[in-house]
From TrEMBL, chain A:
Keywords assigned by UniProt, alphabetized: Membrane, Transmembrane, Transmembrane helix
UniProt protein name: ABC-type transport system involved in cytochrome c biogenesis permease component
Domain of life: Bacteria
Transmembrane segments: 104-125, 146-172, 192-213, 220-242, 298-316
From TrEMBL, chain B:
Segment forming the signal sequence: none
Listed SUPFAM superfamilies: P-loop containing nucleoside triphosphate hydrolases
Similarity comment: family membership: Belongs to the ABC transporter superfamily.
Annotated protein name in UniProt: ABC-2 type transport system ATP-binding protein
Domain ABC transporter: 6-236
Any one GO molecular-function label of the UniProt entry: ATP hydrolysis activity
Organism this protein belongs to: Nocardioides soli
Pfam families, alphabetized: ABC_tran
Superkingdom per UniProt: Bacteria
Length: 322, 305
């Protein structure tokens, strides 16, 4: 098995299309990190001067009609400029928690998409070229072949995604240190754990892409099916009106954030009489807030993944190989 | 243990589709003895490749049993696959990898050394081109690479499906010589080919199938039969025909004057006595092509290749 795994890792390494996808999985998060560091840079005196110049007419209007801008007339002279220039230079300072809720999920999405494509492309090429049959002439135990390829895809994806995530969060943390921004205790550890969960999710997606391609025997068919499922799934969720519990993005957030919260509609009676006055008990009929645990998210994606992998193995073992 | 390297009994393969069931291999009993080169002949769609694919575990049999080296397959295929080299239909390799990369991956799968790759490349004459991408290879080079892949295992059984497809005459000769040498060295070769002259030259035994059924099997000499005819060349064929007919010889219909006999001297004597002088008296032995065409005359293109 170790020998087969070595062969599959070599095959993975020699595929140019795979290398391009893996390179993108490094470059795109790097670009996201750079853009976030740039977008949250401290406001310089030059920025303030430029904003003051750009907003000069608006500052004048504020001075003429301070109440329109929510500024007391007595303080107009000092507050108008501060308020309006603040609008033009308003930048959220960099924070680990803020990035976890924003760009962090973007990095997970990028890694997931690219590694899923890598898993699909890796084995789609074997089917497309017909070389799968040649491989089986050298190792006829199909279960082993399936497992070795799956292991190679998952391992490479996990290692790469974990490294990229780690570097991403270390970069954000280092930028905060350079800017002397305060960091909460355990912020880096939490972000690293977030990154690791994201990496595990991306590796699972790569495994899913691989398993589906082994089932359908075509990269194009796999991408088509995934696209169709995402479109049709979105339509079904919208038409049937399923709650946030069934939203794909919310379940991803639940996994990588180790649980998340969503809001649901409650009966109108909750807003009438005494019930409107009281704070609803957590989880009660009138509580709009719902928690979605990481395990529920894992179940949401894990069940189709296990089903696809099972069907893929069974199909590969039973069907004729062209 | 049986001295048969390949043995099938009642082997059957059905393909089901919306248009119904198509039987590609019909209760085939195949027996290939150890050693030598065994021809596996049949028209297009007769089920040769499907049979080979079932033997190698690439396709599942609908019914019947198969044995390789006495081991039941596909159940025990992993135990014998290391002793089997095979080229099935067209060579199939990763097009963006070089020939060497393709061979290296296969060699590593079975734990063969890099030297073995070197040796196989040299044996099939690909040295110097093994660093080129597979997709840039001519059909002949692809065939050579496929044969090189089979040699990585040092096989005891070699299954070759149309191995000379796309090769130039020199290449065909090289491969034919290689096959013959392998057969003589104790390797059992199952050679599926349409080039009957090639099969007749290198094979010691052969099986002929048509529409997935066994039509004939045995030593090539036995398949050709012992019947011998002689082509008679004379200035006046009509006169000669009358003389030989009158002397009790069996004559074959056709434009040539063919007489069936095992006594060519008697033909010479009869014609000479009648004053008909011979220009030619040539033995005409049946060849594999004739036997093949006679056996498969009723077959139509159809089943799986």
């Amino acid at each position: 098995m170790r020998r087969l795994l070595g062969v599959e890792l070599t095959r993975f390494r020699w595929r140019r299309a795979i290398l391009v996808l893996l390179l993108l999985a490094i470059v795109v998060p790097a670009v996201i990190a750079a853009s976030r560091i740039w977008a949250t840079r401290p406001v310089s005196q030059a920025d303030l001067d430029r904003a003051t110049e750009m907003a000069s007419s608006e500052i004048q209007q504020c001075l003429d009609h301070p109440r329109r801008y929510g500024v007391p007339r007595a303080a107009a002279q000092t507050q108008c400029e501060t308020t309006i220039v603040g609008w033009y230079t308003g930048r959220e300072p960099l924070s680990m928690a803020g990035e976890r809720g924003g760009s962090g999920i973007g990095v997970v999405a990028v890694l997931t998409t690219l590694l899923l494509l890598a898993g699909t492309t890796f084995v789609g090429h074997d089917w497309n070229s017909g070389s799968m049959s040649n491989q089986l002439l050298f190792e006829s135990r199909r279960g082993r072949v399936w497992a070795a390829k799956a292991l190679a895809v998952t391992l490479v994806s996990l290692v790469l995604a974990a490294l990229v995530s780690a570097v991403y969060w270390l970069t954000i943390w280092a930028a905060m240190q350079v800017r002397d921004l305060p960091t909460l205790d355990g912020a880096l550890t939490d972000s690293m754990a977030y990154g690791l969960r994201g990496a595990l999710f991306a590796a699972a997606a790569a495994l899913g892409g691989y398993a589906l391609t082994m089932l359908l025997r075509s990269t194009v068919a796999t991408v088509g099916v995934l696209f169709g499922v995402s479109v049709a799934g979105g339509i079904v969720i919208a038409v049937v009106g399923l709650s946030g519990r069934w939203q794909p993005d919310l379940n991803i957030a639940a996994i990588v954030d180790n649980g998340t919260t969503y809001w649901v509609e409650v009966p109108e009676s909750c807003f009438i009489g005494d019930r409107a006055e009281r704070e609803p008990a957590p989880g009660s009929e009138c509580d709009q807030r719902r928690d979605l645990s990481a395990w529920e998210g894992i179940g949401y994606y894990g069940v189709p993944l296990v089903a696809t992998a099972g069907a893929s193995v069974a199909s590969f073992r039973r069907r004729d190989v062209p | 243990m049986s001295d048969l390297v390949i043995e099938t009994s009642g082997l059957r393969k059905e393909f089901r589709s919306r248009r119904g069931v198509r039987i590609a291999v019909h209760d085939l009993d195949l027996a290939v003895p150890a050693g030598g080169v065994h021809g596996f002949l049949g028209p297009n769609g007769s089920g040769k490749t499907t049979t080979i694919r079932m033997l190698l575990g690439l396709a599942h049999a609908t019914a019947g049993t198969m044995r390789l080296f006495g081991e039941p397959v596909p159940r025990r295929l992993p135990a014998v696959i290391d002793r089997i080299g095979a080229v099935v239909e067209n060579p199939k390799f990763a097009p963006h990898f070089t020939g060497r990369q393709n061979l290296t991956l296969l060699a590593r799968t079975i734990g063969a050394s890099a030297d073995r790759v070197e040796e196989a490349v040299a044996t099939v004459g690909l040295t110097g081109r093994d660093g080129d991408r597979y997709k840039s290879y001519s059909l002949g080079m692809k065939q050579r690479l496929a044969i090189a892949a089979t040699l990585l295992k040092r096989p005891a059984l070699l299954i070759l499906d149309e191995p000379t497809n796309g090769l130039d005459p020199a290449g065909i000769r090289e491969i034919r010589d290689t096959i013959r040498q392998l057969g003589e060295s104790g390797v059992t070769v199952l050679l599926s080919s349409h080039i009957l002259a090639e099969v007749q030259q290198v094979c010691t035994s052969a099986t002929i199938i048509g529409n997935g059924r066994l039509l004939a099997s045995g030593r090539v000499e036995d398949l050709l039969g012992t019947s011998t005819a002689y082509r008679v060349g004379v200035p006046d064929p009509a006169a000669a025909r009358a003389v030989l007919d009158g002397a009790g010889f069996t004559l074959r219909d056709g434009s040539d004057l063919l007489v069936e006999t095992d006594r060519p001297a008697a033909v010479t004597e009869a014609l000479g006595n009648a004053g008909v002088w011979l220009c030619e008296l040539t033995p005409v032995r049946p060849d594999l092509e004739t036997v093949f065409l006679e056996l498969t005359a009723g077959d139509q293109l159809g089943g799986a290749a």
